[in-house]
Design brief:
This protein has 271 residues and is an alpha+beta fold. The protein has seven helices and seven strands.
Length: 271
């Protein structure tokens, strides 16, 4: 659920070039192993790891590979990168990599900008289609709000904490987060502490209500995205059920001893 926190993309979302460069020697291990195993293994038909140690190392390779997501490499480009990984691991690079740092950074920026523009174009088409659906409301900020089930309770305010069930997905249908992934119980969060799209949508709902919310990137994770999960410029869709508005925790009077309970009702979600 912390993916929804306003500060999350800045603090942890973007996989930096430094991460990719640190990962290079480790990736080379897998690349070298694939090369040694022959053409079939190098093409991706690797054996399924069986032991826990092998699964751990395999998972490490998968996690490290995500540091290349922002480059959007083609198959041919990856082969060239793979050659550099192998040569770097074997301490016999044919190019001075340090001399190309600036160009590598420029390539990353160019590829991210291309992803951003592509995502925004596809996202706008998705938003326009959603806005034309029966009952859809498009707000002045560009958010598309579609009531699914009308609530009968109170409407939360900016300073409230709320308990929600939710699912978030990309416009291609890929689910990137949900309350089901966090134990299947409603998640408690601050209305004023989440991405703008959520803060606005929650204040359009009543307790007991369910809604479908489509968020332009400007109200979600913007041009930075939240790689490797959310691309730069991505439009997002959320299904939200507003379960409850927990009572606000009362602060002790001035001079009282002790401290107020922490976490509010539920005590989960971003603070």
């Amino acid at each position: 659920m912390k993916q929804l926190a306003r500060a999350w993309p800045v603090a942890a979302a973007t996989i930096t070039l430094l991460t990719a460069l640190i990962a290079v020697p480790v990736v080379a291990l897998a690349a070298g192993a694939a090369k040694a195993a022959g053409p079939q293994a190098a093409a991706g038909a690797t054996a399924v790891p069986s032991s826990e140690d092998d699964k751990t190392l395999y998972a490490l390779g998968v996690l490290i590979s995500r540091s290349l997501d922002s480059f959007q490499l083609s198959s041919a480009e990856f082969k060239t990168v793979q050659a550099g990984l192998i040569d770097g691991f074997n301490r016999r690079p044919s190019v001075d990599a340090d001399a190309y740092n600036t160009k590598v950074q420029a390539l990353q920026r160019t590829r991210i900008a291309a992803i951003d523009q592509s995502q925004k174009a596809a996202g706008q088409a998705y938003l326009d289609k959603a806005a034309a659906l029966p009952g859809a409301q498009k707000t002045s900020t560009g958010l598309v709000y579609i009531p699914v089930t009308a609530g009968t309770g109170s409407t939360p305010e900016h300073g409230d904490r709320v308990s929600v069930n939710y699912e978030g997905k990309l416009i291609d249908g890929t689910v990137f987060d949900s309350s089901a992934k966090h134990g299947g119980q409603p998640v408690t969060l601050n209305v004023g502490g989440v991405i703008p799209c959520w803060g606005e949508a929650l204040q359009l709902m009543k307790v007991g209500g369910k809604s479908r919310v489509i968020c332009p990137s400007s109200l979600a994770y913007g041009d930075r995205g939240a790689l490797p999960t959310i691309p730069p410029g991505a439009t997002l869709e959320f299904s939200i059920e507003l379960v409850d508005i927990p009572p606000k925790t009362a602060l002790p009077p001035p001079g009282a001893t002790g401290s107020p309970p922490s976490g509010g009702a539920g005590g989960t979600g971003p603070n």
